[in-house]
Amino acid sequence: MDAATEQRSDHALMLAVRDGELDALGELFERHHGPLFGFLVKLTGDHAAAEDIAQTVFQRMLKYRHTYRNDGSLTAWMYHLARRCAADHFRKANAAPYATDPEDLQAHADDSPHAAERAAVRDDHALLHTALGRLDRDDREVLLLARFQELSFAEVAGILECSVGAAKVRAHRALRELRDIYFQLQKETLP
Predict the structure, then answer these.
(1) Which partner for 16 in 24, 58, 61, 118 could form a disulfide, CB atoms 3.0-4.6 Å apart?
(2) Residue pair 81/61 in contact by the 8 Å Cβ criterion
(3) Domain endpoint, select from 79, 98, 117
(4) Do residues 28 and 85 both lie within one domain?
């Protein structure tokens, strides 16, 4: 690949894929596979299923490349496909998704040298994991997109096929529900 190809935006690469330059999908895969896989692991709680779904997403990006719009956001379009692929997976498996493994959440834990503080953070992350697992799938999905994947509310709205205001309201309600579940779990674990 030449330097011009390496510096193309995601949008330009997807337009190239849409127009028949299929090698450009490899660059998009390199750029987006990690974050997409992370989202799917958090959504499904299953590394193998997340990898299968991620592969399906990129296959569908190729298959449905003609549906990518010139004015669209690649990230929003890709996560929209991911959401549909995950729904297909859950429908086929007849299983509900659940939140991330507590060890995945611990990547954000405080690395302070005090053991008691680290243990408290691990406990908090385990409670967060449990609380995420108790959220309704739709609530968990909007939180993962808005908070963990750090997508804009405009992108989240496009993925969820709702207005930006509705996406914000759904995220706010989901966050409030997560907080309530988390605090209830905290109360249950106090001696």
Answers:
(1) 24
(2) yes
(3) 98
(4) yes
